[in-house]
Amino acid sequence: MTDQTLHRTVQHAARTGGDSPVVQPPSTKTGVIGWLRANLFSTWYNSLATLILLYILAKLVPGIIDWLFISAVWSHTEPEVCRAADGACWAFIHEKYRLILFGTYPFDEQWRPTLAVLLYLVLLLASCNRAFWKPWLGVAWVVLLAVIGTLMYGGIFGLTQVPTTRWGGLPLTLMLASFALAIGFPLGILMALGRRSDLPIVRMLSVAYIELIRGVPLITVLFMASVMLPLFLPQGVSINNLLRAQIGIILFASAYLAEVVRGGLQAIPKGQYEAADSIGLGYWQKTRLIILPQALRISIPPLVNTFIGLFKDTSLVIIVGLFDLVGAAKAALTDPSWRGFYRESYFFIAMIYFVFCFSMSKYSQHLEKKLNVGTRR
Amino acid sequence: MSLASERQSPTAHAASGSPIIEMTGVNKWFGEFHVLKEIHLAVERKERIVICGPSGSGKSTMIRCINALEEHQRGKIVVDGIELTSNLKNIDAIRREVGMVFQQFNLFPHLTVMENLTLAPIWVRKVPKKEAEETAMYYLERVRIPEQAQKYPGQLSGGQQQRVAIARSLCMKPKIMLFDEPTSALDPEMVKEVLDTMVSLAEEGMTMLCVTHEMGFARTVADRVIFMDFGEIVEQNRPDDFFGNPQSDRLKLFLSQILH
Ligand SMILES: Nc1ncnc2c1ncn2[C@@H]1O[C@H](COP(=O)(O)OP(=O)(O)O)[C@@H](O)[C@H]1O
Ligand SMILES: [Mg+2]
């Protein structure tokens, strides 16, 4: 029956398409002029806003371009040359980039964090491809983590040992952020499920955990992890500072992600749960196969928002004495002969942060589109 | 395709074994609100029952108690020899035997039609994927939409979605099918295709409980029609007597309202 209806509709569409002349949109709505008119000068206040913005851009852009490129010092020279110039001193970055990227990691061993970061980025990029979302990818990550750990820490295979206190810069930032997401996200999902559980104890514990951690700033969580965690441990057992900070960030991430996931869970209609129940799926099957795939999909934008926030928040570890990217950039400024080039230093790391955050944002948009294909009505 | 089985009266079945569903003195409250009052209902194997009654009279709640989507608070429900208690094992066992079709279809929008159909057989009945897909294809042909197997529910019309929902339940090879106003959310031109599917299912001897206001369906298919009002079963009878000779004033009023 429906197929007949469909058939008729198709025939109808074909007929109208064949008989009536093709009508073009009026020319004022197309082309560059049409676009400008429609988007920038449609009303008098729109035109005014456009003109004001153009004025501001005309004032700002030339100065920025001049500082960044034209008057900038690009060659690798002495600080004095830089101080004489009007533009940015890229010679500073040239001089200090290894310190900024790797912190106090021994200079001669810095090929190790370089290799670790490269390997990490390669597998990260590969993981973006949905065709690779197979069990072996998980295995690959475990292997890679072992390799990275070995590279960074050393102590075997003739690699000199580098204690975690000397780790810093980009590898540290990537590590803190990656573990925060990789462990915090599943933990957050469990907390979100717990908060909606039928079991009162589970629900209460989840609520307490989420509200407690969300109720205090990350700085406090880091301090607590750094100062108070050792108090809970049996005598003689000590966890190193890096691990303590990492645990703090994971706890913080999980509480925030839990609330994002809960938002997604709440958007799933009751009928989905009932249908899953009625065909006999158990709680975990229902959650894994029906509820979470839908809830996480609609949560992608806020999830990525939180991911990006967490990625940048890792810079707070500076307060427990770790030198992440920001910390290392600050440290680079303490060299007396290169003092004062803070703009260049911060611009450099800002670009690094931007590349990572922007990629995350773009990838999430791509993923959203891909995953929406089936369900778009 | 359909085996035209001979219509038999419920009494004929009663002799052939114990009821497949037995509700005795079932009561349920939503908070203070007494939604089901002393429900007694025995359903024989292969019996086809239509349940009607005003909105809010407890029809949905009653059939949802049968597969434990709602929990009853007093009384006893036995389905295919298994008593429904809060014991999760019993609930799982009963849900494997009872299929349910909802007013809003409730297909899983992130899965293809084929995945919707094979999910429960694979994960609950542990059927191999290939076999589950063959079964799914068989039932898609039965509901006459095999060509939609690889589409997503959102790409189908309401009538097609409801037929997929019926097929999804059938893939679990249930002994009982519950329908909760399966055609109420459909555009008028799609009602028939869904009813046709249900008729052919009835002809094959499926035990069915249908909440519906499709009185034509009730007349041609039902062995028994039940009228509910204010959480009670007010009257039940064979369709010809139910429609031709209603006893209670409430049913007379109800019929006069819907039969125009
Ligand atoms: N989950 C619920 N909580 C509270 N009241 C409910 C709930 N579900 C249904 N009800 C109420 O119970 C009564 C019967 O509902 P229902 O069984 O859906 O009626 P019907 O299907 O006959 O229209 C209605 O008054 C409805 O408002
Ligand atoms: Mg209802």
TrEMBL record, chain A:
Alphabetically ordered keywords of this record: Cell membrane, Membrane, Transmembrane, Transmembrane helix, Transport
Annotated spans, Disordered: 1-25
CDD domains per the UniProt record, alphabetical: TM_PBP2
The keyword Transmembrane helix appears for this protein: yes
Name of the protein: Amino acid ABC transporter permease
Bilayer topology: Multi-pass membrane protein
Compartments reported by the entry: Cell inner membrane; Cell membrane
Family: Belongs to the binding-protein-dependent transport system permease family. HisMQ subfamily.
Domain ABC transmembrane type-1 positions: 170-364
SUPFAM superfamilies documented for this protein: MetI-like
Transmembrane intervals: 48-70, 111-132, 139-160, 172-194, 215-233, 245-265, 316-333, 345-361
UniProt superkingdom: Bacteria
From TrEMBL, chain B:
Signal peptide feature range: none
Keyword ATP-binding: yes
CDD domains in the cross-refs: ABC_HisP_GlnQ
Keywords attached to this entry: ATP-binding, Nucleotide-binding, Transport
Pfam family, one: ABC_tran
Molecular function terms, GO-annotated: ATP binding
SUPFAM superfamilies: P-loop containing nucleoside triphosphate hydrolases
Entry-linked InterPro entries: AAA+_ATPase (IPR003593), ABC_ATPase_HisP-typ (IPR030679), ABC_transporter-like_ATP-bd (IPR003439), ABC_transporter-like_CS (IPR017871), MetN_ABC_transporter-like (IPR050086), P-loop_NTPase (IPR027417)
Segments forming domain ABC transporter: 21-255
Family: Belongs to the ABC transporter superfamily.
Protein name in UniProt: Amino acid ABC transporter ATP-binding protein
Classification lineage: Bacteria, Pseudomonadati, Pseudomonadota, Alphaproteobacteria, Rhodospirillales
